Amino acid sequence: MGPSPSYRMRRALFFVLAGSAGFVVDAGVLMLGLWAGLPAWAARGPSFLLAVITTWAVNRTLTFRTGAHPSLREFGGYLAAMSLGLAANYGLYLLGLILGLPPLAALAGASIIAMGINYLGARRVLDRS
């Protein structure tokens, strides 16, 4: 039968919360990288990695409540599942930079679009319902 509508709504809300936390980390680390003199395209590497660690922790704990102990294998699967969203996010981020958007604006637009792609991937790796 599948999860109830209220469960799906709660899961979507927590996914947005996890994405928002990831965005704050992504933007903060991006700004630190820019402040340190990294080019805008290079500052996204560390910012993405820390953001994906953040979203994995929140999603596995709140959104999908896996109940399993965290593992490198699970994180690797999550990172692999996020790779399509990463490609979309980074590509759109670069496009925004090429079009002259400030780095944070490019990041925000790219992140919003990639969130839907990432939800499908996270659900596939973490959802035990």
UniProtKB/TrEMBL annotation:
Pfam families: GtrA_DPMS_TM. It is found in: Membrane. GO terms for cellular component: membrane. It comes from the Bacteria. Residues 15-125 form the GtrA/DPMS transmembrane domain. The keyword Thylakoid does not apply. This is Flippase GtrA (Transmembrane translocase of bactoprenol-linked glucose).
